[in-house]
Design a protein that fits this description.
7-stranded antiparallel sheet, two-stranded antiparallel sheet, globular
Length: 362
Amino acid sequence: MARRSSEISSLEWHPSDEFTLGAEDELLLVDENAELLGQAAAPVLDALRERATTGNVKGEVFADEVELETPVCADAEQVYDALKELRRTVTDEGVRMLAAGVHPTAAFGAAALTTSPRYDRLGHEFAGLLRTPTAAFQVHVGLPDPASALTVYRTLRNRLSVFRALAAGSPYWHGRDSGLACVRPAILRSYPRTTMPPALPSWEAYEEAIAVARWAHEVPDYSYVCWELRPQPRLGTIEVRVMDAQSSLDAPPGWPPSCRAWPATRSSLQTLTISRTRSSSPTTSERAATASTRRSSTPRAPADPYARWRRALSTMPASSWHPTAWTDRSTPCTPSSPTRRSTRASATCTPRRACRHCSRIS
């Protein structure tokens, strides 16, 4: 346990200004025929790093992918302006960009990898799973402390499938129609540790989850644990990672939805109404919502498996809350409609359960 305690203690939160924003815009570098540049992109990236005056330009694990990082921004409009300036830097250099979650025609296995200690490690671990480049639009929300971070984390976790649907932009892969609106998650879910974020009731639960992941996968720090939504203690942010790269910053659905949702997120945290009364969606419900939005790109929030019970409670008369109401079998249940199911019903409701026919708690 000494080793695990040491790992947990390294997750020190570095406070950010409350509700600042930042973005990482991943783009694929292509030639005049829209084919990936491969290792030929290396000198291009070097030139772009020197020219960038707003934010940073970085390479990725794929050699022909560039990541444009905005500076810390006060609001979504500043993020927008910084992204436009960064993209202009790339085009002014004469470099062609392709903004899509997955290159639509790249051959299976056509992935040129970057050489660095971190990426060499990932390349060795992921091996053939790194079969084609993927590109995302990732948003960081700055928060002052771990408690606020987890409040936002739990609120956003319930809405990831909506963000994914609004930003879906990868229907094709390997020259074929995938049948999905967003195929990038199908690739990412094959990578170790790139999964749906777990429900985290406390910061201690987060520390324990990271400690177990580091120990089990033998990775050096938390940045190798790439949930689709994750705290970033070193930056003091919550990072949303489910959106595909966006072809346009001006089109209504193209302007990244997590940035446009920033005012609502801020309001949710300040009032603390939703986040303190609503728990995270169950994992099965989240997976179902993800699968649905991945297919059709229609925004769908996770189903609430307790909705039936909430409706029943909301319609209960006050007298039903008296202790004797939970044990009284004398009042018969009268089905609301003569269905086949109701004709087989018992004459009375089962104690401590919601009646199947009248939604009354008996």
